Fold these 4 entries.
Entry 1:
Amino acid sequence: MLDPNNSKDLKLLEKCRQINKEIIDFGVSDKEIIKIIELLSFELEDTDLMRSIHSLLKKEPEDIKKEKIVIWKEKYMSELNEEEFVPQDISEFYGKVKLLIESMEEDVLKANKGNKAAGVRLRKSLRYLKTVSGDFVKFTLGK
């Protein structure tokens, strides 16, 4: 993966953003985006990664959302313990907040049905959301 903190990767990341912008500006639907991802995955040298992408694309939208949440929890919850999140811009920070809120949905539904463990996880996520929201405000103010 390209690392935004690595100066060598910055030009490559910019190139990726430009390609992404061109595709989006072209006017594509969600189904077309998924097909583009599938076609691009055929170009990967890492066949295990290609197979993982294909298995993910075969899942139903609700399954994809759950997978996204699991990936987010593994990535960002581990970052809490290891290193600090350093966003490059407001939209990246907003993406983190959005994913955090989406990741709480499953626990909200379970807690609503009386699952006490889900309620504990939900409250922990809400406390973290409060902290992240405060950091987001400071970030937008340039502090």
Entry 2:
Amino acid sequence: MDERRHSCRVAPTQETYVCISGNRTARLMDITPNGAHLELSSALNPNHQCRISLELEDETLRLTARVAHCKLTGFQSFGSGGQLIYRAGIEFTGVDDEMAAAINRAFPPPAPEPAPKPERRGPIKVKVNVESFERAAAAGEREAS
């Protein structure tokens, strides 16, 4: 599958929540400087514009976003009750370089994994020093006589 994103998605290392339009909370699943993937208990309308507040260690980012998609993904039960679980993809709008840098500092992309070693196939080349075998054979003949 072709990756349509301009940057690598980064999952937070600890549970992180965002505030949506001042009245809803959502768990941040992953983020890029261009958008985020959220998990929440109520649906967001696709193409709806919203405000996102993301508290970082040293600052709070206030971003505007467009809901790209939202769908019901499950049900979580709590004793006798429960709640629906939705997943939404949002696209940030109007992100400047400073905001993008703050997101990248707070959620640095993982280091690339080293390339796997190629699996060996076919014959293996082995160098043999024939002279040492000939000397050993000659020494063995001298000892036998």
Entry 3:
Amino acid sequence: MSYEEHFSKSDFRDKALAIAAYRKASTSFRPLFEEAVSRFHGEALAPLTEISAELNDPDKNSGEMNKTCANSARRLRVLFDEANTIVNGESPRRGVGALFGIR
């Protein structure tokens, strides 16, 4: 799903503004941003199967599911921050490097 499709189908109050800003963005920005959003989307979907299985397994305890969720949240945060650096006009590598103290 593209960025524009995501916002057009969302309940986000300012979705028209988000779409308009995206359309006005430099064409050199869009491929990097779309790639970052796609990676985020893929990573967001990945743990759903695992979490669903843990919810349906009576032998699993909540600590295991909490760990799965926490690990997923950490990975998603890195990808979100990468997309955010692109939005703010920084190099994604520079932004992600900053997360790990590498510049």
Entry 4:
Amino acid sequence: MGKQLIRCLIHKNINVRAGVRSERAEEELRSLGAEVVFLNHNSPSTVKIAMKNVDKLFLATGFGEKMVKQTQTLVDEAKLANVSHIIKISTLCGGLSDKYCTSIDLLHR
């Protein structure tokens, strides 16, 4: 979904900065025309760099036990960077109850 969004935004001449975790992703997104920065969801320092001069954030994190902490780090750094809009995509917790849902539901609010 992220790559499709990047393609659409670039097609509309909107500047895009994409946070990546691998060289393969970096090359692919650069070829689409995106500015690319290294982003480690577990490292606030890389998140802080990635958020510099960002106005809107499309947030897609992986599923797993670190998901809640990673999402919170990204949201916290976005707030500190004065990001005006955060769009969080998630298919989790559609009325379900498990150990991740309670925490992630709180982040969505």
